[in-house]
Automatic annotation (TrEMBL):
Residues covered by region (Disordered): 1-24
Annotated organism of origin: Oryza punctata (Red rice)
Protein name, UniProt field: Cadmium resistance protein
Domain of life: Eukaryota
Compositional bias segments (type: Low complexity): 1-19
Pfam family, one: PLAC8
InterPro entries: PLAC_motif_containing (IPR006461)
Amino acid sequence: MYPLDPSSKPGESSSAAAEAPPPAPEPVTGIPVGMFYPAPPMERVVSCRMAPAAGGAWTTALCDCSDDCNTCCMACWCPCIPVGQVAEIVDRGSSSCALNAVLYCLVFHVSVGMCQWVYSCAYRARLRAAYDLPETPCSDCLVTFCCQTCSIAQMHRELKNRGLDPNLGWEVNSRRTMMTPPQHQAMEGMTTRS
């Protein structure tokens, strides 16, 4: 026996109820009990950076300060530190970060804040020469004079993108690059057995 249709009246035949269209089902709402729906994974927003090349182009643009906010803030509020770090890497450890930072501050104070851009301009030119980078968007002197903060941050990012972290100093970076084995290393005379 089947249960009676609640919409049918008593005394009606079941054939009349079968001919009528079924009522629309009510939508199901709520969270199913006993089922776990994990949240979709959050995607990290990754900045579009070019892979470091042997030369020919900067890996970031002059105004890409949002790629590395820490460096940008340091270049804005205490530029002697990133200039000293960049100078130590560009000089390949022949001068220390502290010495270059003190020299930058000395030039700043002697020139009453008017000529410190010349110091960072010199290191921008040396960095460009080391990596064969173009003088874009304009000459080094004009870039560092008009927007020294962006110029310092760009040099710092360039070294980071090329595998030399200026925050670590030259000695640590040189040891780190010497200890890294080549990508495709094969030993002669070795055979594999199956």
